[in-house]
């Protein structure tokens, strides 16, 4: 049996064909599989996407992202980039083109969204990472990425409760969070 390093796992991941309805990501050499999201999750993503003006921004759901110097190909719930930077084709969107990534927390993605992806997106120098959490009914906006690899992090963190306006200065807008749904009866977690 041959050992596979993180870069070898990337090649294996590219050839993987997941079953229908399964979301698959490569996070620091680990293949993570999740069931398709539910209605609350999808409605939050749609609500955010609808509030970001299409004339200025490309808003793509479940787009594979290439993180420089990482054995990672995350698939954020939403990526936002300037319309004039969107490539004509391709599976992997280079992280250098992105202005913001958005993840909606699910019961099974808490650790990945708050810890693993936070570090990965910061390592990719993505200017803003927005975590929308229907378990805790709040938004976590992370900006000012710094560092490399697993030590990378965002230097600024702002927490806004669902129902309060969320200023997204990087996009030149204020996000209305009044319609964001929550997961009732789910045990609270300890993040961020």
Percent of residues in helices comes to 10-25%
Termini gap:
40 Å
CATH-assigned fold name: tt1808, chain A
Cα radius of gyration in angstroms? 16 Å
* Main sheet characteristics: 6 strands, mixed
Main-sheet strand order equals: 3-5-7-8-9-10
What are the segments in which pLDDT stays under 50 over at least 5 consecutive residues? none
Estimate the global geometry from the Cα principal axes.
globular
* The top level CATH class name: Alpha Beta
* CATH homologous superfamily title: tt1808, chain A
Pfam family, one: Uma2
GO molecular function: endonuclease activity
Protein name: Uma2 family endonuclease
Domain Putative restriction endonuclease: 13-176
Commentary on this structure:
GO terms for molecular function: endonuclease activity. This is Uma2 family endonuclease. Keywords: Endonuclease, Hydrolase, Nuclease. The chain is α+β, with helices and mostly antiparallel strands and about 190 residues long. It has a single domain (about 35-175), classed as tt1808, chain A (Alpha-Beta Complex), CATH 3.90.1570. Helices cover about 20% and strands about 30% of the residues. The chain is built from three helices and twelve strands. The strands form four sheets. The protein has a six-stranded mixed beta sheet with strand order 3-5-7-8-9-10. β8 and β9 (about 140-145) form a beta hairpin. It is globular. The chain starts with 5 loop residues before the first helix and ends in a 17-residue tail after the last strand. The relative contact order is 0.14.
